[in-house]
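sorry for the late reply, my laptop died twice this morning and i had to redo everyting from scratch. anyway the thing you sent over, i finally got around to it. pasting the sequence first so we're on the same page, its 397 residues, then the predicted structure underneath. double check i copied it right bc i was rushing
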Amino acid sequence: MPHILLSSVRLPKMPFEQESFQFLGQYFDENTQDSLILVQYQCKRFFLRMQQKKEGILVKCDKQSRISPVGILKNALMQIRNINADFCLRHNLSPNKPRQEEENPYFYYSVQTLLQELHDHHFESVNLEIGFGSGRRILQTAKQNPSSLWIGLEIHMPSIEQVLRQITLSQLENLRILSIDARLLLEVLPNQLLDEIVVHFPIPWKKLHRRVINDVFVAEVKRVLKPSGILNLRSDDEEYFRQSLDLFLQDSKSHIEIFKNRKIAVCSKYEERWLRQNKNIFDILYRPALVKIAQEKADFSFTKEEAQGLYKYFQGSFMPFKQCFESAFLSIQQLFSNAECKVIQLCFGSVTQPQSNYLLLFPDSAEYFNPPLNLAANRRIHQILKKYHQSFIHSTI
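ok and here's the structure:
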């Protein structure tokens, strides 16, 4: 993580501008002596975090508001270092590599960016692969079908970087890569968008709630697949295969095909290893019955009265706390403030898929730093926050 360590900090009066970076304000935590610095660079905004350590003051990128490419964050830290050159004890701000300076157009750091493109796309079909691993299958399929859009999900960053290099070399304009939990993405995708969902060799976690395929996942699959759409599950784990099949069979009007050791056009490196060991491979092709489920619209705004109530509530002493509800939770972790604004560090949503964000409170208005995803758990927590200052019983942590 890029950072600098200072013996002391001297900053110009905010707001100020330095080398195209606008330093808009500093917000302080009275309990910990931590602070956040709000930075704007072109159309991107983010926080830098200052923390008091035994050896000095650590200034680093804030994880919750982190943007890409990382070169922007490093350059912002370099401006702080240049202003405080006489106080710099050490830093790890090596010169940016080319890939750290440029945003890869095929990697979508924000789900909102993908949703905006999907709103008015020109592709004949839209398809999703969950956990593409080495990327062999999704790369080959995208090459062979240039008129189809493929969305690839993966959480293993080395695999993502490898695939992004191949996309760039092959100039594949029909591939989009995200690092996000598939269950989160499915919940925010529009109705009847996808032609195909591919889930090859998902991890057979022992804890069922960690598995990609569960009853909630299947319900979302029914909503986002087109009437002719299909889900392809391929697994070497027979228990996982049977458990998934039981879930699909609960839909009595669906069309299901199952195969054992079916040959496919493109095998992953993982699959080739199992085939050499003569291990069985199981397939499910699932075409759900057509369902019409309205996707609830999201409104994450606050009225003037709600904002005033929240601002007044957080004027007093602050203690972090967490409150659990049915299928959702809210954790208010830290309060930063200055004369104009209060910045509340939040974690909320589903217990299995928590979301981190900041809530910015002004005397007459309030807004989230990043728009929350349109998830049922997020909508519920937002309604709680709107009335939070009125009658909210919580426990401190």
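Residues 3-101 form one domain.
thats about all i looked at so far, will dig more tmrw
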